[in-house]
Design goal:
This protein is an alpha/beta fold and about 350 residues long. The chain folds into two domains: about 210 residues, Quinone Oxidoreductase, Chain A, domain 1 (Alpha-Beta Complex), CATH 3.90.180.10; about 130 residues, Rossmann fold. The chain is globular, with a radius of gyration of 20 Å. The structure holds NADP nicotinamide-adenine-dinucleotide phosphate (NAP) and zinc ion (2 copies). The site of NADP nicotinamide-adenine-dinucleotide phosphate has 31 residues, from helix 1 and helix 5. NADP nicotinamide-adenine-dinucleotide phosphate binds next to helix 1 and helix 5.
Length: about 350
Amino acid sequence: MTPTLAYAAVSAKTPLAPFSFERRTPGDEDVAIDILHCGVCHSDLHTARNEWNNTLYPTVPGHEIVGRVTAVGSRVRKFKLGDTVGVGCMVDSCRNCQPCTDGLEQYCDKGFTGTYNGSLYGGAENTYGGYSSHIVVRESFVLRVSHDASQLAAVAPLLCAGITTYSPLRQWGVKRGHKVGIVGLGGLGHMGVKIAAAMGAHVVLFTTSADKREDALRLGAHEVVLSRNEDEMAAQAGRLDFILNTVAAPHDLDAFLSLLKLDGTMTLVGAPATPHPSPNVFNLIMRRRRLAGSLIGGIRETQEMLDFCAEHGIVSDIETIRMDQIETAYERMLKSDVKYRFVIDMATLAASAV
Ligand code: NAP
Ligand code: ZN
Ligand code: ZN
């Protein structure tokens, strides 16, 4: 066992604070990783504050991890000491069911093991995530990072925000000639804009924040629509092939469903604590529209996304924070004031823990 320093919440009402625990000694198939950077996903906040009513405490959030390999088990073949690697939202799954054998571990019939708040070996103890000094992960859930060494902090958010947007854009076949809407310019949304643009789509960004217009265009959007402006919304009615909705709060889905063409799909990835108002059935049946959902992405597809981003020069736009600034970052996230992902410099953990 290895003593590990971290930041944890011990209840929904307490701020994150220094916390110590022990990581397992790496087994034959394990990779031990020193964590360099960890992105701050809105799911971290939902979990720390028990907004999904499933948090096991103490909880150590963080599932956008980039780090360096410090040890490998005797059967590890893909990684060696000193390699730069990533860990996303999953650290294990049953590896036997149909979704697992199809490379869709996120839809494992038995439930994947989350990087945090996952049940450890089926027991009550929960996994601890990336707001920590290091982590031990089974080789098959570790990703190769091929971006330049100077970009590693900005690569971290790809491990969740990147794959969560890449996977549905691929699944629904987004390509050149498609008009694609991205709703919400936060961590997920800004990755959605970059990736959809790199896939060749015409990208329309829908935002509630007028001051994000210029940024959205710089990030790759071709058009920006203020979703609270009825005229701007009406101008898009029936024009979009696909919409990826990343909003973290309940809102009126009809406003967006009515923008889809015949047979168009809106896929929800945002996971608000309380339900959206039910959409109007007529908005769906009149043009055979579809409302769908999508969860992160499998390990194989996460590697594909990392390689795609490296090839297209895509990283996240980040604001680096110290570990002890995490609560301020959460408060800013709640005000949609993220440009466009906070990433914790994990070198600040020790100093933040005294
Ligand atoms: P984020 O950085 O906070 O971004 C969310 C964005 O949604 C905000 O920046 C804002 O963009 C918009 N927004 C917020 N409140 C809104 C409201 N009341 N009405 C309309 N728009 C609003 O969060 P994130 O990290 O991207 O995560 C987004 C959601 O996805 C969270 O619920 C998270 O838990 C979930 N998630 C799901 C998966 C999955 O696998 N499905 C994976 C990761 C995260 P504008 O300022 O542009 O309006
Ligand atoms: Zn996430
Ligand atoms: Zn499985």
